[in-house]
Amino acid sequence: MKLVLASNNAGKLAELQLLLAPLDVALVRQSELGVGEADEPYRTFVENALAKARHAAAATGLPAIADDAGLCVEAFGGLPGVDTAFYATRFGYEKGDANNVRALLEQMAGIEDRRAALVSTLVALRSAEDPEPLIAVGRAAGQIARVPVGDNGFGFDPVMFLPAFGKTFAQLPSEMKNANSHRGQAARAMLALMRERWFP
């Protein structure tokens, strides 16, 4: 089965290919099929993921899967949330992982409550008209480190400290990261849903 990934993020593609490998689905990035990015006007991960999956399914006629993920910081009332990818631009920096981390650490200087969670919401549709989307959510809670540590992963991985491991996500081997990450949790839940509903 060919499944369109409603994202052009190479990191997401690699992680999801690995996590969905047991289903024997061929995951193809939407850009490889000439599909542009969808609008993401909503304030929740699930609404944006659904919009992205519908857009990719409508444009290709194939089943689609989309992920909307972000960082939710307790001290900021859950923000940046759906605006995570563009976080740095709010503070005059160019969009990008390194600048996002830099802006976050600057904004958190002097803040003692470092609690945060990386959240991933996956939505899969058999078609753009599918009335019963599969929805899976993963949440990895931790604390924002005071300096970036580690070089594995992407996004906020270097500053997402996990007390249970005493390390950041960027310090964990890929296998351990995928077993505990927000996207890993969501992908395993999605795998179970697909097996139950799409591949009984």
UniProtKB/TrEMBL annotation:
Keywords: Hydrolase, Magnesium, Metal-binding, Nucleotide metabolism, Nucleotide-binding. Its cofactor is Mg(2+). It catalyses: dITP + H2O = dIMP + diphosphate + H(+); XTP + H2O = XMP + diphosphate + H(+); ITP + H2O = IMP + diphosphate + H(+). Binds 1 Mg(2+) ion per subunit. Its EC number is 3.6.1.66. This is dITP/XTP pyrophosphatase. Transmembrane segments: none annotated. GO terms for molecular function: ITP diphosphatase activity. Homodimer. It comes from the Bacteria. Pyrophosphatase that catalyzes the hydrolysis of nucleoside triphosphates to their monophosphate derivatives, with a high preference for the non-canonical purine nucleotides XTP (xanthosine triphosphate), dITP (deoxyinosine triphosphate) and ITP. Seems to function as a house-cleaning enzyme that removes non-canonical purine nucleotides from the nucleotide pool, thus preventing their incorporation into DNA/RNA and avoiding chromosomal lesions. Mg(2+) binds at D39, D68. The lineage of its organism: Bacteria, Pseudomonadati, Pseudomonadota, Betaproteobacteria, Burkholderiales. The active site is at D68 (proton acceptor). It is an enzyme of class 3 (hydrolase). Substrate binds at S7, N8, N9, A10, G11, K12, A69, F154, G155, F156, D157, K177, H182, R183. Belongs to the HAM1 NTPase family.
